[in-house]
Amino acid sequence: MNATLTAETLVQNLVHWLRLAVEITGACAIGIGSAISLYRFARALISQQETDFNAIRLTLARYLALALEFQLGADILSTAVAPSWQEIGKLGAIAVIRTGLNFFLSKEMEEEKKASAGEADVQAKAKG
To answer: Is the pTM higher than 0.85?
Structure first.
C-alpha cells in the first residue's frame, strides 16, 4: 500500500512539473512572438516606408496559435491524474474556447496569406 501511494505521488509530481514546463513554454512563445512582432513594427515605423503590416500580424498570430496549443496541452495535463467531474467540465470548456480561438486565428492567417500573395501578384504584374 505504501509503495502505491509513493508511486502515485511521484506520478502526480511529475505531471505537475511537466504541466508547469508546458505552460512556461506557451508563455515563452507569446513573449518571443510579441518581441519579434514589436521589433518588426518599430522598425517599420522608424523607416517610414509603406509596410505590409499584415506580415507582422501573421508573425504574431503564428506564435499565438502555437502558445494556445501549449496552453491546451497544459490544461490536459492538469486533469491527467485522477480528475474530478468538475475538472473534466472545466477542461472541456477551456478546450472548446481555446480550440475555437485557434481555429479562427488559423483561418484569419490563411486569409491574410492569400491576400498578401494576391497583392504581390498584382504588384509583379504592374512592374512588368
So the answer is: no
